[in-house]
């Protein structure tokens, strides 16, 4: 069954002023669609491959485009129109298990954001910043992946795209401004749902 581009759970201008309509349209309709198309092509080629060498040659395309599709599908749900703009619940971390876990590990939400932003901003080139649930230690951890590599060592709870196509048209090369702004549209309700599923043993 072919992979398809998922619909956004909000309008393209729903995350403004923190992420512009122009960025969202290009990011979703162009960039994510390209990953979907290339993943489908790679999967079709893999199905037709008749030798190990041919299958090995397709691994990079499957990893890059498959990761791009997985990561972005998570990312869209990870965002929500901002509560500070009166548009939705984005940026609101309610009392509950996720807030308790963040406070236990980092001391406060602000300290958590500061460490996440510093870790993610330090990625060389393109990649993703993650808050992931470590199934071995049973705690949340801040980790990064390069390029479009999916997070395999942890269950993703929050993921932030640090590729330039995610922010450059609005924030130019100032990653720090983008990372500070995106917390206004982080869907903590979705993050808490993922956190609880991870604790119950759910897989990516």
Plain-language structure description:
- The protein has helices at 21-48, 52-57, 59-77, 97-106, 109-121, 168-171, 175-182, 188-199, and strands spanning 127-134, 139-146, 155-161.
- By secondary structure, the chain is mainly α.
- It has a three-stranded antiparallel beta sheet, with helices on both faces.
- The mean pLDDT is 96.
- Helix 1 (21-48) runs antiparallel to helix 3 and helix 5 (109-121) runs antiparallel to helix 7 (175-182).
- The protein starts with 20 loop residues before the first helix and ends in a 5-residue tail after the last helix.
- It is built from eight helices and three strands, in the order H-H-H-H-H-E-E-E-H-H-H.
**Got a strand count?**
3
Question: Low-confidence parts lasting 5 or more residues at pLDDT below 50?
Answer: none
Summarize the helix and strand pattern as letters.
Answer: HHHHHEEEHHH
**Broad structural category:** mainly alpha
What's the overall geometry? globular
What helical percentage do the residues reach?
Answer: 40-55%
Radius of gyration over all CA atoms, rounded: 17 Å
What gap, in angstroms, lies between the N and C termini?
19 Å
**What's the arrangement of strands in the largest beta sheet?**
2-1-3
Share of residues in strands? 5-15%
Instruction: Please give the largest β-sheet.
Output: 3 strands, antiparallel
Write down the overall mean pLDDT: 96
What count of helical segments does DSSP give?
8
